[in-house]
Amino acid sequence: MSVPSAAPESTDLLHTIAVGSTGPRIAFLHGLFGQGRNWNQIAKAVSGPGGADARCLLVDLPDHGRSPWSAGFSLEAYADAVALTLTAAAPGERWAVVGHSLGGKVAMVLALRHPDLVDRLVVVDIAPKGYGSLDRFAGYIREMQSLPLGELTSRADAEARFSEPDPGVKAFLLQNLRRDGGAWRWQANLDLVAGDAALQAGSLIAGWPESVDGLPPYSGPVLWVAGGESPYITREDGEGMRRYFPRTRQFTVKGAGHWVHTDAPEVVVAALRRFVASVD
Hints:
9 strands, Rossmann fold, 10 helices
């Protein structure tokens, strides 16, 4: 049974990309500053040759990609927007939901608020807890804000001006840069994220909503994927995870960091295929 909506400011559906034609339905949710298409290669591999093994939906979360922006951040509203979108895509059907980082939090809140919609859950390298602040993203946010959009002449110019030494991180962040005619803009709602980061320990994006504490635990199967080299999941997080999701099975990918599905795509694909195909 679903809980009442968290009153998102828009009833517009989120932007999605469909991959695959038959089989179980799987929704993929990305992390902060990501887009649904970040899961494209994983979804193609999971859906199999000709897309016959699974029907995947790659979702742009609110304030990201081509989805609508909101005036304020709320994990509950994000989860409700995903629920609305999945229900519209396949009325009356249930989904396996896969979420990484921020998308993992949204997926967990979705399962707790709309358990009838979620057949099973995969949470990638995040725990149901507050992480304090967005300090780890502060440098990225400052660099994005400092890029002189009005002076850019090309994407190559933007790449040259963007002072991020890690080429993978630079490409990930600059995927949010879009050109409309002769003007450049950030596709992600950068002002909203920057405003949340300014709250320091009060960050809602880094936090965990107290509202879910009054909800019943999610009774479906949960695969909890951790990066062996990532600090996002600790041994102490297991108790809290099992309180909300008693049927959790943890799977640690050795050598992988926070972006587990990027560091070890073959391992993640194999784990997803097994988990989605398993009998409840």
